[in-house]
């Protein structure tokens, strides 16, 4: 009887171990598929040439080695952009509470370079996370940066005062230290959900081989 119990226990243990292995393998495969899907879309794989509020040229390579949360918007945006930047700032603050996590860089790229020069960006970003980096450039450079992330941008008609609204994709992008787009967050995601997702990517991150 004891031998039968021992055999049954061993079989049960082997089944449990096998189930755990299959579950872990499935999770790895799901992460791998997600990564392949993002690669296939080529989102954010292109470089960009912009400048920050101090006039310093910035390229995508300047942010390698850091996690980045990137949002495209414009300073004259009446409501959506401020809400999204507040949410992004809150997510960064939540993650900063854990000193064990790697640093996270918030980036804001304007889609309205005509009005958003360095001074305008600096004034605007003062209301959000203190480490926000604002980027602008020529219309051609900004269009190229938006296209690299497949962000839709379309300036609306001007009113009598010459004012206009820029319609654009409302997405926040997560870029890993290798410069690869890991995820993106729509307007429906909360700061807490965004922070939880970013933490999950950080926890499972494995650097790409050289």
UniProtKB/TrEMBL annotation:
Q: Which GO terms describe its molecular function?
A: metal ion binding
Q: Does the keyword Metal-binding apply?
A: yes
Domain Thioredoxin per the UniProt entry, residue ranges: 39-203
- The highest taxon in the source lineage is Eukaryota
Compartment list: Mitochondrion inner membrane
What are the GO cellular component annotations? mitochondrial inner membrane
Listed under GO biological process in this entry are: mitochondrial respiratory chain complex IV assembly
Entries under Gene3D superfamilies matching the protein: Glutaredoxin
Membrane protein topology class:
Single-pass membrane protein
Which of UniProt's keywords are assigned here? Copper, Disulfide bond, Membrane, Metal-binding, Transmembrane, Transmembrane helix
Q: Give me the disulphide-bonded residues.
A: 77-81
What are the binding positions for Cu cation in this chain?
77, 81, 168
Classification via InterPro entries: SCO1/SenC (IPR003782), Thioredoxin-like_sf (IPR036249), Thioredoxin_domain (IPR013766)
Q: What is stated as this protein's family in its record?
A: Belongs to the SCO1/2 family.
Q: State what protein this is by name.
A: SCO2 protein
**What species was this sequence derived from?**
Origma solitaria
Question: Which lineage do the record's taxonomy fields give for this organism?
Answer: Eukaryota, Metazoa, Chordata, Craniata, Vertebrata
Which gene is the coding source of this polypeptide chain? Sco2
């Amino acid at each position: 009887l004891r031998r039968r119990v021992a055999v049954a226990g061993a079989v049960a243990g082997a089944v449990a171990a096998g189930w755990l292995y299959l579950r872990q393998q499935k999770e790895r495969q799901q992460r791998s598929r997600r990564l392949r899907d993002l690669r296939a879309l080529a989102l954010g794989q292109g470089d960009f040439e912009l400048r920050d509020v101090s006039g310093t040229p910035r390229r995508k390579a300047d942010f390698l080695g850091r996690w980045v949360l990137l949002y495209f918007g414009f300073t004259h945006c009446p409501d959506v952009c401020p809400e999204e930047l507040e949410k992004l700032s809150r997510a960064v603050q939540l993650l900063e509470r854990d000193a064990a996590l790697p640093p996270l860089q918030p980036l804001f790229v304007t889609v309205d370079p005509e009005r958003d020069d360095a001074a305008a960006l600096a004034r605007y970003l003062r209301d959000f996370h203190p480490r926000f980096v604002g980027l602008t450039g020529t219309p051609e450079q900004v269009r190229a940066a938006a296209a690299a992330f497949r962000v839709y941008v379309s300036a609306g008609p001007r009113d009598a005062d010459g004012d206009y609204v820029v319609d654009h994709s409302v997405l926040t992008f997560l870029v890993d230290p290798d410069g690869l787009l890991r995820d993106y967050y729509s307007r429906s995601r909360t700061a807490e959900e965004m922070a939880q997702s970013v933490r999950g990517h950080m926890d499972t991150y494995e650097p790409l081989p050289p």
